[in-house]
Amino acid sequence: MAEIVPIIDAQDLRKVFNGTTAVDGLTFQLFPGECLGLLGPNGAGKTSTIRMVYAFSPMNSGSLKVFGIDIETGWREIKARIGVCQQDNNLDPDLSVLQNLELFARYYDIPKKDAKDRARQLLQFIALEHRANDKVTSLSGGMMRRLVLARALINNPELLVLDEPTTGLDPQSRHQVWERLELLRANGLSILITTHYMDEAYRLCDRLIIMDHGKILVEGGPADLIRRYAGEEVVEIVNPGREVREFVQTSGFMHDMLDHRIILYGREDDHLFELIGEQFCKEGCIKRMATLEDVFLRLTGRGLRE
Amino acid sequence: MIELPQVRNISRRFARVWNRNLVVYRKIWLVNFLVPLFEPLLYLTAFGVGLSALIGQVPYEGKELPYVVFIAPALLSITMMYNAFFENTYASFVRMYYQKTFDAMMATPLSLEDIIAGEIVWGATKSVIATAIMLFVVSLFGLVEYPHGLLILPLSFLGGLAFGAAGMVFTGIVPSIDMFNLPIFLFITPMFLFSGTFFPTDTLPDWAQSISHALPLTHLVNLCRMLALGEMHPAMILSVIYLLVFTVLLFPVALIVMRRRLIK
Ligand SMILES: Nc1ncnc2c1ncn2[C@@H]1O[C@H](COP(=O)(O)OP(=O)(O)OP(=O)(O)O)[C@@H](O)[C@H]1O
Ligand SMILES: [Mg+2]
Fold first, then answer.
1. Is the full-model pTM beyond 0.90?
2. Can you give the residue ranges of every domain in chain A?
C-alpha cells in the first residue's frame, strides 16, 4: 500500500532572528484534507512557522517538504499551489475590489479570462459582488478579511494557510468566515490555521498544536486535549477560604490555585460540584464544561507576554 | 559572508508586477500625462523667452546653439531621471513599506527578484512614457532633428533603468521615507545642475568637470543632445557603455539590498 504523502512535512524547523530563537526545532505534519491549528500566546512563533511553510522566509535549519517537494528547490511550485491569508490585511489599496482578485490571479499566471471568471465567482462566494468596483479602503474590516480569504483562494489552492483569519472581526463576520472555511474543508481542502480564538480552533480544527517559545507543548484533537488537560467538568471557586484551599490541595484533583480563585478540573463522575458545594460553597461557586481555553491557559501559563 | 544577487530568481513573471503598476497608472493617466505635457512649456517659456535674451547663443561642441535648443534635450534627460528615480524611491517605498504590496506578492509564485525587476522596468517605462510626451511637445517647437530624435525613446528606457536601479538601491537601505531627501540632495540635485544641463560643462573648473563626467546624467544629457541635434558621434558609444555598466552594476546591488531588507 502506498504511504500517504503529507501535505506538510516539517522536521526540526528552526528560525532565529538576530539572536532570538523564534522557532525552536518544530516537527509536525499536516495530512491531506486535515485542518491543523497552531495555537500559542503572542510571540510563540506561529507566524514565523507559517511563513517558512509558504516559502516567505527561509529556515535556519531543519527540513521542510510541502506536497512532497523540498521547499529549498521547489519554492515556486509550492507557492503556486498554496493560498495564503497573511496576518495583516495587505490588500492593494490602489486597486478596486475586483481588480485585487483579477491582478492577483495574474501573479499566478492564470489566463486573463479565467482570472475574470474566478474573481467573479469568489466575490459571490464572499458575498461582495455588489462592491466589485469599490475601492478596498472603503470596505469594513470584516469585508476586507473576507476579500483576503477570497484572494487566497484565487489559484484553487491545495493547501490554505491562514494566519489569524478572524482577528478583529465582529461575531457576525467571524461566523461568515467560519461558514466559508467549513465549506472549503468539506470539499477536501487542507488547512493550516493560527488563531487566538479557542472557539474557532475547536470548531474548525481536526488537530491542534499548542506551542510556546517556538516549541510544541502538546498535540492532539481538540476534544482529546480538553479531556487530557482539563477534564470534563470544571468548578471555579471565587474568593476561596482557608479550609477549601486545604481541602483542594489534599484532594488530589487537578486544579489551579490563583490569587482570588481556585479552578478544579474533574471527570463528570467525580461530582466535584456536589462535593465542594455541600461543604464550602454558600455562593461564588461556578460549575461549567471544560474548554480549550482551560487547556491553553494551563499549558502556557497565565502570565502576560511582553 | 559575501551575498550574491539571486539573478536566477528572475523569471518572465516580473511582467506581472510591471502590469500591476501599469493598471494603476492608467487609472489616473490624465494626471500622469499632464506633467510631461506642460512642464516643458513652463521651462521653455522661462528659459526661452526670459533667459535667452540675456544669454543668446551657447557654445557647444564647436557650434553656437540658441539657448532653448541647448536646454530642450536636457529637459528630456531630467525627465528620464526624475520619472524613474522618483518611481523607484518614493512610490516603490510606499508600496513596499506602507501598502505591504510586496509582502502579498511574495505569497504568490513571484520571487522577490521578480518584484524588484518588475518595479525597475516599470520605472523605466514611466520614463519612456513621459519622455515620449515631452519629446512630442518640444518637437512642435522644432527643437529636435528627426529621424535621429527617435532614438531618444530607447535612450529614455536605458536612462530609466539606470536611475531606477539607483533609486531602488536607496529604497533598500533608507530607514524611513523622509530619508530620501538625502540622496536627492547629494545625488539628484547636483546632477540636475551640473551635468551640462543648463550650461556647458567646459565652463567649469577642471576638477569639477571630472566629477561631472563621472555622473550618469552628464552622459544621458550628452547623448540626448547629440540625437536632438541630429548628430552621431563615435564618442557617444562610450556614454552608452557608461550607462549600461552603471545599470548592470546597480541592478544586482538593488536585488541584494532589497533581499536583505525584506526576506526575514
Ligand atoms: N522580522 C522579525 N525580526 C525580528 N524578530 C522577529 C521577526 N518576526 C518575528 N520575530 C520574533 O520572533 C518571535 C515569534 O514571533 P511570531 O510573529 O512568529 O509570533 P506569533 O506566534 O505569530 O505571535 P502573535 O500571536 O503575536 O502573532 C517573537 O519574539 C518576535 O519578536
Ligand atoms: Mg502571528
1. yes
2. 8-226, 232-289
